[in-house]
Amino acid sequence: MEPRFDLMTNGLGAKIGKRFAAVSLLIQGSTLPRDLQELLMLRASQINGCGFCVDVHTKEATVAGEAAVRLHLVAAWRESTVFTEAERAALALTEESTRLADAHQGVSDETWARVREHYDDDQVAALIYLVAMINAANRLGVIPRKQGGSYEPGMFADLSS
């Protein structure tokens, strides 16, 4: 599978990419724990089949100190003992939000109630935007066939400037 297009070498693509990255930096700066953010982005990327995003979020989580066992088990978080109840609530929200076309009701009331038990209003706002942004980022990787394997941690650090 060959890549189709490089958005970052296109003038308009690069300009839009910088704005996109700026929103992501705001989310990163929220009180939502950074390790949780990486796990959620990894899970959505797995569901969406974005190899590049799986590469990015696995490597960034590793650099941030995330345990390998948690990275290996995030795809099977329901059948694992290594995630807290708060993380499980956020993972459920991420999956239900990512799979909107598969669920006629969208995010269930049960999942929403569990999220509200564990996260304050600012964290909920960050969660919602994080899921929306990673799903958009996954499409930006899948449509032009951006392949995984080449990402180096921190390589997008200057993208938003």
Your description of this structure?
The chain is mostly helical and 161 residues long. It is built from 7 helices and no strands. 61% of the residues lie in helices and 0% in strands. The relative contact order is 0.20. It has helices at residues 11-28, 34-48, 51-63, 68-73, 85-98, 109-118, 121-142. It has a domain at 33-142: AhpD-like, CATH 1.20.1290.
SSE series: HHHHHHH
CATH classification, class level of the domain at 33-142: Mainly Alpha
Helical content, roughly? 55-70%
> Would you tell me which CATH topology of the domain at 33-142 applies?
AhpD-like
The coarse overall form would be globular
**Structural class by SSE content:** mainly alpha
Distance between the termini: 32 Å
Detail the topology: elements first, then pairings.
Layout: H1 11-28, H2 34-48, H3 51-63, H4 68-73, H5 85-98, H6 109-118, H7 121-142
Describe the structure concisely for a colleague.
By secondary structure, the chain is an all-alpha fold. Helices cover 61% and strands 0% of the residues. It has a domain at 33-142: Up-down Bundle (AhpD-like), CATH 1.20.1290.
Short key terms for the protein model shown above:
single chain, 161 residues, mainly alpha, AhpD-like, 61% helix, 0% strand
